[in-house]
Write a structure and sequence with these properties.
heterodimer; A: mainly alpha; MetI-like fold; 13 helices; 68% helix; 0% strand; B: 335 residues; mainly alpha; 76% helix; globular
């Protein structure tokens, strides 16, 4: 939704004020939800990085003697498997911990691909003559007119189901948002005095694009990056759930849900925990995104 | 206004052609030979293969193939399914009412709960109510709905036994589909309990599908209301001594509705994406499940035609929303 309101966006002054990060942190800290989200995010990041050290078992290690063991606090549960085991006797906790790695990998890779492509295309559209701008924006309209998950599904069907292809598909689907945001921001910046003076001073096009204008367009893009990070995690999990993302036995959270589906009425824990992990991660990132928006872009502030 | 309408329609044409090109291109780059897929397990002789190859026109230049496809689309011919051998167009319209019924119920839930929630939150800004409602909205917004659906099934179908797990109606009932809308058909059939059964099948899928639009509408209503509540005319209305419900409900909400209507219109795309997951989980025989099944089955004409029709649907709705927006807010037209 950030892209809808961003056309009114203006950016701060060009001179770098001392302690800019400090100022950002002061605004960010005002929003308690954002700080909580940030800490949860750090926690998941920690888990993801040190997964092999934290997890009590290998994620794919099967114990045929202990299938569908309930969580420790229920009858029949044991502390060997704090969150129980799945139908193949694999430890739920270990699989969830390793799953965090895939989610962060997905979020990071998708945002990098989508943002790089989107920012470059948006810059070109903003600086380009009108006909080229029109062509680029029409193509983006076409991509946006197909529901994102459907387009991603068809793209994965073309590329073949795998985690990497799911990431590429989601990145393509998310990219138009960056293009629109960047283009809108560039358009507002271009008419400003500092851009004209840079032009008069003889700055060439690449310098104008990347050094003069781009840094002043970054605020809404950073907010969008946070939002698409959580979108990427959700969509790749959805693709995994439909069997078009990561393939079993990968402990990706969406794929785990798909594998657990037939057991929902017998063993609620195999379904509940992976989904809860997705929800908490996405919620934390969205909270952070709201805080980022308030801190970086006061004009977009909601309340 | 006419000029605005015209310019808006003009941008519609290249987008439509673009979507046609994309859906045409997909079928050509998808892996696997569609004819071999059609032959199935038994395989086919080389002569039959060549015959079909020519029949489908794969031997002609791509441009000619596209032109045939495009003119076909303009005349409502989207080809036929490899699996059922029925025209894609007929299949789409046989299943579309199911998706429409589900989406309609979802959007009613989303608006009926989201609007009041947003207004209440804005009026009580910063208080407990506001924070509770907005926290729930953010949770709804972050929800992986496929998991949410499974959770609701565990609770309401598994533990409480209140609602069925899948389908649109109990197998007990059988009647002709007159309108394709199960709620209406079951009423028309006059069979006892049929309508109740249809409603019970509809509840969980609608709630699941409504979740994200509900959260988005609540958030958008709140921020639009907050903006409006700071305006001078609200202060005037209050100073005149109007009762708060009238100020909030009539003076503020009316003006806050413009962005909210846009969001409701734009959530159609969101609903269709959500329908893919919701229909798959609840075995709801609609467009979403049809598309997913066709992708699994590599039924290319269906994937191609379905993609085109769904995109067209989203585009038409967006166009209508844009036009309505121009009608409500004269400032937009001038751009």
């Amino acid at each position: 939704m950030a892209d809808v309101s961003s056309s009114t966006n203006t950016t701060p002054t060009t001179t770098v004020r001392p302690g800019r990060f400090k100022e950002f942190w002061r605004y960010f800290r005002e929003n308690r939800g954002a700080v909580i989200g940030f800490y949860v995010f750090l926690f998941f990041l920690f888990v993801a990085i040190f997964a092999p050290l934290i997890a009590p078992f290998e994620p794919s290690a099967q114990n045929r003697g202990a299938t569908l063991v309930p969580p420790a606090w229920l009858d029949g549960g044991t502390w060997t498997y704090p969150l129980g085991t799945d139908p193949l006797g694999r430890d739920m906790l270990s699989r969830l911990i390793h799953g965090a790695r895939y989610s962060f990998l997905v979020g990071t890779v998708v945002v990098i691909i989508a943002a790089t492509g989107g920012i470059l295309t948006g810059l070109v559209a903003g600086f380009a003559p009108r006909w080229l701008d029109t062509i680029i924006m029409r193509i983006m309209d076409i991509i946006l007119s197909i529901p994102s998950l459907l387009l991603a599904l068809v793209l994965v069907a073309i590329l073949g189901p795998s985690l990497l292809n799911a990431m590429i598909a989601i990145a393509i689907v998310l990219q138009p948002h960056y293009v629109r945001l960047t283009r809108a921001a560039v358009m507002t910046e271009l008419s400003k005095d500092y851009v004209i003076s840079a032009r008069v001073a003889g700055a060439r096009l690449p310098r104008l694009m990347f050094v003069t204008v781009l840094p002043n367009c970054l605020a809404p893009i950073i907010v969008q990056a946070a939002l698409s990070f959580s979108n990427a995690i959700l969509d790749v999990a959805a693709l995994g759930f439909l069997g078009m993302g990561a393939q079993p036995p990968t402990p990706e959270w969406g794929t785990m849900l798909a594998e657990a589906r037939e057991f929902i009425l017998r063993a609620w824990w195999v379904v509940t925990f992976p989904g809860l992990a997705i929800l908490v991660t996405v919620l934390a990132i969205n909270l952070m995104g709201d805080g980022l928006r308030d801190a970086l872009d006061p004009k977009l502030k909601r309340s | 206004m006419l000029k605005y309408l015209f310019s808006r329609l003009l941008t519609f044409v290249p987008t439509f052609i673009g979507v046609c090109i994309i859906s045409f291109a997909f079928i050509r780059v998808l892996p696997g030979d569609p004819i071999i897929v059609m032959a199935g397990e038994r395989g086919m002789s080389e002569e039959r293969y060549n015959e079909l190859y020519q029949q489908f026109g794969f031997d002609r230049p791509l441009v000619v193939q596209f032109w045939d496809y495009f003119t076909g689309v303009l005349q409502g011919d989207l080809g036929q399914s490899y699996v059922t051998k029925r025209p894609v167009w007929d299949e789409f319209f046989a299943l579309f009412p199911a998706t429409l019924e589900l989406s309609f119920c979802a959007i009613i839930i989303a608006v009926a709960l989201g609007l009041p929630a947003g207004v209440i939150a804005a009026v009580n800004r910063g208080k407990f109510f506001d924070r509770a409602l907005m926290s729930s909205a953010l949770i709804g917004y972050s929800m992986p709905i496929f998991w949410w659906a499974l959770l609701l099934i565990i609770i309401f179908s598994g533990n409480l036994g209140w609602t069925p797990v899948s389908g649109r109606i109990d197998l007990l009932y059988f009647f002709d589909a007159k309108t394709g809308f199960m709620l209406i058909d079951s009423l028309l059939s006059g069979q006892e309990g049929a309508f109740k059964s249809a409603v019970r099948h509809l509840i969980l899928p609608s709630i699941v599908l409504a979740t994200i639009p509900l959260a988005v509408i609540a958030r958008q209503t709140r921020s639009a209301m907050l903006e409006v509540l700071g305006e001078d005319y609200i202060r005037t209305a209050k100073a005149k001594g109007l009762a708060p419900p009238r100020v909030n409900g009539v003076h503020a909400l009316r003006n806050a509705m413009i962005p909210v209507v846009t969001v409701i219109g734009l959530s159609v795309g969101m609903l269709l994406a959500g329908a893919i997951l919701t229909e798959t989980i609840f075995s709801w025989p609609g467009i979403g499940k049809w598309m997913v099944d066709s992708i699994y089955r590599r039924d290319y004409p269906v994937v191609q035609g379905g993609l085109l029709l769904v995109a067209l649907l989203v585009m038409v709705v967006n166009l209508i929303v844009d036009l309505l927006y121009g009608l409500i807010n004269p400032k937009i037209r001038k751009r």
